[in-house]
Amino acid sequence: MRNIVEIKEVFKTIDKEEILSGINLQIAEGEIYGFLGPNGAGKTTLMKCMLTLSTITSGSIEIFGKNLQEHREEILSQIGSIIESPNFL
């Protein structure tokens, strides 16, 4: 199976604090994946980076075999997500 998501050596620093440190992750086509961990572990930050709601400091994120930063609109038009609790009106 091909990898739908490939995260390679991703770092994220906010105000000199390293939030993500060398994250590597591969998610294959057809897999369901969840992030578990204590508060402050970086789960939401990683998801925000995967959705381009926050930029990474270094490393790369590929979705559908394409660099997320270079093909942002094309990739985001093909995915959907809900982060934390949705607010329904």
Core attributes:
single chain, 89 residues, alpha+beta, Rossmann fold, 2 helices, globular, ABC transporter domain-containing protein, ABC_transporter-like_ATP-bd, P-loop_NTPase, ATP binding
Provide a concise account of the structure shown.
The protein has 89 residues and is α+β, with helices and mostly antiparallel strands. Helices cover 15% and strands 36% of the residues.
Descriptive overview:
13% of the residues are buried. The mean pLDDT is 91. A four-stranded antiparallel beta sheet has the order 2-1-3-4, with helices on one face. It has one domain: Rossmann fold (3-Layer(aba) Sandwich), CATH 3.40.50. The longest helix has 8 residues, at 43-50. With 89 residues, it is of the alpha+beta class. The protein has helices at residues 43-50, 72-76, and strands at residues 3-14, 17-28, 58-63, 66-67. It has two helices and four strands.
Name the structural class. alpha+beta
Return the string of H and E elements: EEHEEH
Number of helices: 2
Rg result: 13 Å
**Shape verdict:** globular
Could you give the order of strands across the largest sheet?
Answer: 2-1-3-4
> Overall pLDDT, averaged?
91
Query: Could you state the CATH homologous superfamily?
Result: P-loop containing nucleotide triphosphate hydrolases
Measured as a percent range, the helix fraction is 10-25%
Domain ABC transporter: 20-85
GO molecular function: ATP binding; ATP hydrolysis activity
Keywords: ATP-binding, Nucleotide-binding, Transport
Pfam family, one: ABC_tran
